[in-house]
């Protein structure tokens, strides 16, 4: 059984962003001070963060999905085609969901203010922080592929967590934005799996896992 089907854990994920939101300002200030300091950790992060930023970017994920779909179709590799298709489904579905939430809530990004500011429905630049879209997409992918490839579930979540950390480290989002992205991505992943569980594509998965 997929461990994130536990309702208590899902409820906890829903509550965490609103708890952490009270500490967003102080955590962002600490992070700014840390980045301003020179040390081994900052040097390590300087190497790691650009890589995480590249692979966590929506365009990179979309291109990877498209390449896998085309490769699988052209060379008749069902497994590759399926993986690519699910990557694109997660990317599009989670992406659309997050964009709706972002612009309905209108939270200011940390580059504008350290305070908690929600202005409501808005298309203004910089007021699209909550939830984190990158985080939602990668955790949607982790949830879906963690369900189908259970032995690699921990790896999927670990990589997704690193990519989500990059959003906070670069001060693109507050920590609560990222946790809200985790929750959103997992919920979208659950909806996707529910929709496909009775489709013939889920039958083909036995071939992927085999």
Which structural class do the helices and strands define? mainly alpha
In the CATH hierarchy, the architecture is Up-down Bundle
Strand % is under 5%
Helicity, in percent? over 70%
Taking pLDDT < 50 over at least 5 consecutive residues as the criterion, the unreliable ranges are: none
Number of strands: 0
Distance between the termini: 19 Å
Shape: globular
At the fold tier of CATH, the topology name is Vanadium-containing Chloroperoxidase, domain 1
Radius of gyration: 18 Å
Whole-number mean pLDDT: 88
Return the domain count.
1
Q: What is the CATH top level name?
A: Mainly Alpha
How many individual helices?
Answer: 9
